[in-house]
Amino acid sequence: MKEVVSDAGLVAFCGLYCGACRAYLNDRCRGCKENSKATWCKIRICCMENGYRSCADCKDFKDVNDCRKFNNFISKIFAFVFRSNRKACIEQIREKGNGKHAEIMASIKAHSLKR
To answer: Three-state DSSP class for 86?
Structure first.
């Protein structure tokens, strides 16, 4: 298994930190930015089409939860099951930047801030 390290390139488009994800650490996933099979992810498609590093770069929605691509039924289920708070991750990226977000997430060894 890989070790959790700080890498801004492993911040997912939705704000999660792939560098602390079990699938990534066990070499079952390369992270969403490198996963060309993740064509189902509307957030990934939107960010790639608009040249965003993450939803934190979006100027259309001050509150990321107003975006239907970010905040939908499936994302609510995942947030409940995994107790994740992607909105808090996006807010942290907006406030501190991708590099500091990666550093914080690596230090707490978490793929998401908790609800």
So the answer is: helix
